[in-house]
Structure formats: structure tokens, C-alpha cells
């Protein structure tokens, strides 16, 4: 009961300090830490420095640690008697284009009232600055009440999550001794639905690939060369149109090796969630699932692999018209992967498929972007049940074990390189518009997220 | 023989007056008549006025006639007994950027010696001021010898050819009575090869179309929606990949209706040109024709219709990677058309093909860009044989009837609006760099071009 009353104090402290916490988040969001664009490198570092200073002020032993790319922020508290915990988040954000679709400057965040309550609007509000700050604010309130930070904490904040996490694996390897804990916590996921908290227990992997097809050594006039000279856009289009069949299945040889069917137990759990694909799609102006035939909606997004074209460019696409046969065309494609699908084998199969479509007069070049295996957690660890109870208490609704269609490769890296399982607990909403214009994070997610972490810290302490 | 001796006098007069003719061309070239840039509107008009004054001095009934855009110059001689002829050229020029790639100011033309003989260097030297002046200089010499200009001539010089010829069709319609002649002559094309004169007797038409496929009402994260939501890039790619089959033939129903096979005569003529597709392609870093199977290289570029993707854009194609399912994807495509292919019917077939690939959750929008029928001249008109003989006599090599892969819409306009066939006779070279920095026109093209017109005028008189 002593613990419970201290917890209540921490929760009260969080409630009382909410407006200050929102102001701190706004300050953090003003730093345009776009990791994929080299023009923003200094801003990425500025965001790392800001985080380190915040954490050091709170009493963490905090440092910005360089990598060959953007730096890591690492902060620790002294070891305690209980379970040690590594909390991971990322302080970098996605690019903001198309800028004209934002209804306010993406790096001038504000609290806006909406019919669903107040939101914090700005790039990174949900992904992941707002989410990671829920944990930092829980620590701040904890310290105010307990006089000290929770023991045995390691905080790790990455600056390259949105640009492929190029340096994460080497960093984990080189600093394994410092980073290894009993369990990892990641706050970069959504609740199952508004008001229904969740712990994500499986994540799809990701394989990204850029394909560049080149033909003539210059742009050609289609009047002079059309009908005779190779058109790299057509070559690329022909290759990309045949990766999937009419049933939505990927045709690459061996693609489905290692893609498991659901266990009966998980199938029943997911069924109970009552997911309605048409309703889900209607939120973004769609209504018909277009994926593999014969699969439920949740299977499609959580337990089935995909192939998607994420970007394509070639020739003249501006105002008016230009009858050009371009010298090159390029596409960015990616696969979401599940179970034990082998990213290297699939990448090779994809490249072989494209090469088979490239005629003698064209060349093709491939660039790998991102490569992460899927992750499946061991939910028999009692920490999962304890966290589930804490979340259920905070939100007043039964917390769910769910899957995630996105890739959080770091969870797989923690398992493989540091031997830790991960609890993925996040407070994002499906309408947060992450990676899109007008990204937001609900003030409720932010406030109750911090309260949730306070409860989980208390439960695991 | 009387005619022949007067022709010889005209040719001698041209030879004797060459340096004066070059000086007049240089004066004309100094006027920066860039039609696409409103900043040069006064210069475009100055070029029109200069031409009118030259023609009036020569004895033409010449006028600058306003349009809603840049003006036309029209000049006439009294009707005669023989065939009436409309000569068309354009006095506007392309922009000059990138200026730093010019080795002299583009509007300070000069005669330069080169390993292939002297050239006149400057914007518009070949396209089209130098070419149109070959006809004007032939008229000047004719008048000096005969005491009068050739009868039954109409000269029409346009000032918007390089900016879309927006006002040409209305002008032709409104002034049809004044402009209609027995035959049109256009000097805006190349010789078949250096030293081999040619009359272009067929031109491909053009149909341009922009296709926009839209899915969700915003860009989506492929982790959250991949496998469930429609991807407009994939939809567009699937539609574009199936417009042509593996043999390079367009699959749209009715596409080849009106696309004629070569006559035996034209097939033999083209065969005699000795076109080497591999050599032609090697100039741009390619070597293998990729068009329809079973067609010669010249057929592919002159007598076969095409489907080309000129531009495509969708999703994220910048630096790095973004796992987005974009809200929309767009492509610009065009067909080169031959014979009597029906542009409207083909546009509808293309749109129907695309629509058939668009799933329930996507919409598609089409925008027409450009629509010109192919032109095929009736070479049984004895004027063609007469002009061929005249060109053969001047150049000492058999003149060829050739095709052109590009579109010169004015020739189709003359046919459709004024009921005239056109002889396209030009003296440009493949290395004239029209539309590019360091445009030039060979002094030989200029001198022998004028002599060629003198011979053709004599033959058609």
C-alpha cells in the first residue's frame, strides 16, 4: 500500500505538471531533426544535445555518443535491486514534404483543439518525440516524489530510426555491456484503438530497395527515337507490375518461406478485437481491402508479408508536357516481412526478377535501404502480464496483445545482439498521420502515456 | 533552255551575293525573338517588323498581322498562271539557357570556320531563321534576274512556333481565303544526312495524355496500411505495363486501325538510304532497337506508331527512403501516330485500358496534352518529282523521300484547314544543335539551300 500511495503521488504530480510537459515537448518539436536529409544534420545533433541536457538536469548520467552517422543519446541511473530496464526511443523525424499540405509549419508545433480533444500538431509529435517524452516525464515525476530516479534504468535515444538505423547495430554491438538490461521497453507504437491500450508482441520486418534503370546517355526526343530506343520508365514499370499476381500474392521464388500461419490462440485473440477493415480504411477515404485474397484484415497488416512501391520517378513530370525518352527511371520499393522470412534471400530474388526484365541496352543499379527481420516476443515473461495489468488500470479497459504491421527493427536487434526481449507499449492513435502532413499526438496520449509508464515502473520495480 | 539559262543566272546571282545574304541573316539573328518568354515580346515583334520590311523592299505585298499572341508576317506576290505556293517558316527562337554553355553570345552571331566548313553560329541560325532566309534570298535573286518576283507566292512566317503555336489554327481558319494555295512549302527540317537532300513526305502525329491515379485521401505508412490499402503507384504501373505486349506491339483495341504498311516503292526507297539503327543508337550510348519485332529501324521511327511513358512520379523519390503508400501517382504518356490513326479513338481506348486496371478504391483522372494527326503527303503530285529532281541537280546526290518521327503540326493544319499538301524541304544537319547551346547553320546549307529553292521555283513555275 505504501507503493500505491507513492504511485498516486507520482500520478498527481504528472497531472499537475502537464502544461509544463507540453511546453517541453513543443521545444523539442521545434528542432527539425530530419535524419534522412543531410541538410538537417546540425538540427539532428541539436535535438540530441537538447535531450542530453534535459536528462542530465533530471539527474541521469547522460551523454551524446557519436556514430559514423547521427549520434545516440544514452542516459543511465545507478543499478538497483530489481529488474534493469532499457528504454528506447528515437529523436529523429520524417521529412515534411509535401509542405503545402500542412495547415501549419511542421516545426512550429501548437496545441490545437479538435472534436476529439486537444492535440499537439507538428512533425514528430507522435513519431517519436511525443512518445519518448512520456517516459521522460514519468521519470521526472517519479524523481519529484521519490527524491531519486528509478534505479537500473538505461535510456537509449537514436537519431537514425527514420533513415534506416544504419549505425544502430554496430553501436549495440560495441556498447553491449553498457546497454544490456533484463528487459527492453519501446514507446513507438499505437494503442489498439482509441482508449484500448496494447502491448505489441510481434512486428513485421522490412526490406527496402532502390532500383535505377538507365538507357541512353542523355534524354532523347521521342519524335527522333521513339519506337527504336529503350525507355527506362517502361522497363521499370514492366518489372514492377509483375512482382505480384492478380490475387495479390508476391511471385518471387521462395518469398513465403518462413512466413508462419497464426496460432489458433492468437487467431482467436485477434478475432476478439473485432477489427473491421472497411471501417479502418474508411478513415483514410478507402473502403475495400486490396491485399491477398482469403486473409482477414488483421492478418494482412500484422501477419502477412507485402511488396509495395513507395516511390517512382522518371522523365518529365512537371507542368505541361515534354515528349522525352528519359535517360533513367528509378523506384523505391519495400517488403514488410513476417516470422523468419530471410531478408537477404528475398532481396536477391527481387533483384533477379528485375534483372530479367532489363533489355540489353539498359543497365540496372540496386541500392539496399533497410533490412530488418520480423520480431516475435515471448509473452510468457511475467513482465508482460504486469504491464498489461498496469495499462488496464490506467485506461480502464483490458489491454490487448497485438501485432504491428510496421517494422521496429531495434526490437529484433535487442533480442539478437543483447539477448533482451522487448515490450512495445505506445500511445499513438491511428489518425496521428505519422509520416504524413499534419502529424499530431493527442494530449490525452501524452498525459495518460506518462501516467502509464509511472504505473509500469511501479509494477516492475 | 530559256528557262535553264535564266535559272543559271539566278544561281550565279545567289553565289555572287552570298556574303550580303549572310550579313542580312546576321542582322536578323541579332534580334532575340524568344517567343516563350514574355520579357522578349518586343523583340519578337521587332523580328516580325524586320522581316516585313525586307519583304516589302523586295516588292512583296507584306504585312505584320496581329494575333492574341505574337504576330504573323504575311507577304504575297500577284497571282500568276502556274501553281500557287504558300511558303511557311517561323521567326521566333528557343530560349538560350544554359547561357554558360555557349561559346559566344547567342544573339551576336558570327561566321566561324570549323573542320566541316564555315558555319553561322547563333540562336535561330538553323531553327528557323537561316532556313526561312534561304527562300527569301532565292526570291531576291529571282527578282534581280527576272525583274519581278515569282508570281503566286504567299509567305507566312509565324512567331509562336517555339511556344506551342497557340494562335496558328485560328489564324489559318480566319484567313483561309488569303492563305490557301495549290501547295505548301516548309523549310524547317533536316537533310537525310550531310549532303543528301530530302523531301519529308510523312510526319507522325502525336497524342499526349496525363494520367493521375488517386487512392487514400493522404499518404499512408506502409507499416500500418501495407497489405490492406490500395497503392496508386502499383495501380498505375499495372496499367502502363500492359499497354504493350512482349513483342513491343500496343495492345489497345483498334490501335493499329489506319496505320498503313509501307508501299513497296517507299520500302525500296528507305532501304536504299542504308540506315543503320545500331550506328544511329550508338550516338546516344545505345545499340539495340527495342521497338516492334520484325520492323526495320526507319519503319520504327517513321512509319510505326508508338506508346511511350514520358514521365512518371509518385511517392517519395528523394534522397534516402520513405515507406509511404502515396495518395496519388501520375504519368505522362504519348503516342506517335501514323497514317490515318484516329487520335480521339486511341485516346479513348487508352483511357478505357487504364480504367480497367483501377480498383474500386482508386479514382483516375485524365488530362489531354496535344493531339495532332499524322500527315502523309500525296507524292503523286508531279511537284514532288519536280522538286526531287531540282534537289538532286543542286546537291549532286539523289534526293530522298523520307519520313519524320516527330510532329510538325502546321503541315497537318495546312491539310485539314486549307486543303493543301505540303513539301517539307530543309537543309538542317543533325549536328546543328537546335534548341541547345551553340546552335549553328552551315554556310553550305544556307548557300545551297537558297540555290535549291531557286531551282524548285523554276521547276514549279
TrEMBL record, chains A, B:
<dbReference type="GO" id="GO:0008233">
    <property type="term" value="F:peptidase activity"/>
</dbReference>
<feature type="domain" description="Peptidase M20 dimerisation">
    <location>
        <begin position="203"/>
        <end position="361"/>
    </location>
</feature>
<dbReference type="InterPro" id="IPR002933">
    <property type="entry name" value="Peptidase_M20"/>
</dbReference>
<keyword id="KW-0479">Metal-binding</keyword>
<dbReference type="InterPro" id="IPR051458">
    <property type="entry name" value="Cyt/Met_Dipeptidase"/>
</dbReference>
<keyword id="KW-0645">Protease</keyword>
<protein>
    <recommendedName>
        <fullName>Peptidase M20 dimerisation domain-containing protein</fullName>
    </recommendedName>
</protein>
<dbReference type="InterPro" id="IPR011650">
    <property type="entry name" value="Peptidase_M20_dimer"/>
</dbReference>
<dbReference type="Pfam" id="PF01546">
    <property type="entry name" value="Peptidase_M20"/>
</dbReference>
<dbReference type="GO" id="GO:0046872">
    <property type="term" value="F:metal ion binding"/>
</dbReference>
<dbReference type="GO" id="GO:0006508">
    <property type="term" value="P:proteolysis"/>
</dbReference>
<keyword id="KW-0378">Hydrolase</keyword>
<dbReference type="Pfam" id="PF07687">
    <property type="entry name" value="M20_dimer"/>
</dbReference>
Amino acid at each position: 500500500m505504501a507503493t500505491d500511495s507513492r504511485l498516486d503521488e507520482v500520478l498527481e504530480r504528472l497531472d499537475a505538471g502537464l502544461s509544463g510537459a507540453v511546453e517541453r515537448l513543443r521545444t523539442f518539436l521545434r528542432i527539425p531533426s530530419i535524419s534522412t536529409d543531410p541538410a538537417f544534420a546540425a538540427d539532428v545533433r541539436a535535438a540530441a544535445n537538447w535531450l542530453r541536457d534535459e536528462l542530465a538536469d533530471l539527474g541521469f548520467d547522460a551523454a551524446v555518443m557519436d556514430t559514423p552517422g547521427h549520434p545516440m543519446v544514452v542516459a543511465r541511473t545507478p543499478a538497483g535491486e530489481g529488474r534493469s530496464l532499457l528504454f528506447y526511443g528515437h529523436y529523429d523525424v520524417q521529412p515534411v514534404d509535401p509542405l503545402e499540405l500542412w495547415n501549419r509549419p511542421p516545426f512550429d508545433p501548437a496545441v490545437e483543439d479538435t472534436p476529439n480533444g486537444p492535440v499537439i500538431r507538428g512533425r514528430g509529435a507522435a513519431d517519436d518525440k511525443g512518445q519518448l517524452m512520456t517516459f521522460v516525464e514519468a521519470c521526472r515525476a517519479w524523481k519529484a516524489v521519490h527524491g531519486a530516479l528509478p534505479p537500473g534504468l538505461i535510456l537509449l535515444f537514436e537519431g537514425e530510426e527514420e533513415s534506416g538505423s544504419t549505425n544502430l547495430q554496430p553501436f549495440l554491438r560495441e556498447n553491449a555491456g553498457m546497454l544490456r538490461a533484463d528487459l527492453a521497453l519501446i514507446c513507438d507504437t499505437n494503442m489498439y484503438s482509441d482508449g484500448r491500450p496494447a502491448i505489441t508482441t510481434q512486428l513485421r520486418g522490412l526490406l527496402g530497395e532502390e532500383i535505377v534503370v538507365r538507357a541512353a546517355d542523355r534524354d532523347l526526343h521521342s519524335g527522333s527515337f521513339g519506337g527504336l530506343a529503350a525507355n527506362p520508365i517502361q522497363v521499370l514499370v514492366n518489372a514492377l507490375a509483375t512482382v505480384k499476381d492478380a490475387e495479390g500474392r508476391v511471385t518471387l521464388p521462395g518469398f513465403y518461406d518462413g512466413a508462419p500461419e497464426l496460432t489458433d490462440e492468437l487467431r482467436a485473440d485477434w478475432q476478439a478485437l473485432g477489427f473491421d477493415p472497411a471501417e479502418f480504411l474508411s478513415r483514410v477515404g478507402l473502403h475495400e481491402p486490396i491485399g491477398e485474397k482469403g486473409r482477414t484484415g488483421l492478418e494482412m497488416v500484422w501477419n502477412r508479408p507485402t511488396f509495395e512501391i513507395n516511390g517512382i520517378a522518371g522523365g518529365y513530370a512537371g507542368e505541361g508536357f515534354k515528349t522525352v525518352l528519359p535517360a533513367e527511371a528509378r523506384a523505391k520499393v519495400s517488403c514488410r516481412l513476417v516470422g523468419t522470412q530471410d531478408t537477404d534471400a528475398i532481396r536477391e530474388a527481387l533483384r533477379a526478377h528485375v534483372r530479367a526484365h532489363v533489355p540489353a541496352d539498359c543497365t540496372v543499379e540496386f541500392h539496399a535501404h533497410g533490412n530488418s527481420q520480423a520480431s516475435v516476443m515471448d509473452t510468457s515473461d511475467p513482465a508482460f502480464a504486469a504491464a498489461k495489468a498496469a495499462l488496464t488500470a490506467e485506461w480502464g479497459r483490458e489491454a490487448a496483445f497485438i501485432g504491428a504491421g510496421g517494422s521496429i527493427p531495434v526490437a529484433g536487434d535487442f533480442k539478437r545482439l543483447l539477448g533482451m526481449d522487448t515490450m512495445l507499449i505506445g500511445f499513438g492513435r491511428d489518425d496521428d498521420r505519422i509520416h504524413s502532413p499534419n502529424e499530431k499526438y493527442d494530449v490525452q496520449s501524452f498525459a495518460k502515456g506518462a501516467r502509464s509508464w509511472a504505473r509500469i515502473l511501479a509494477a516492475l520495480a
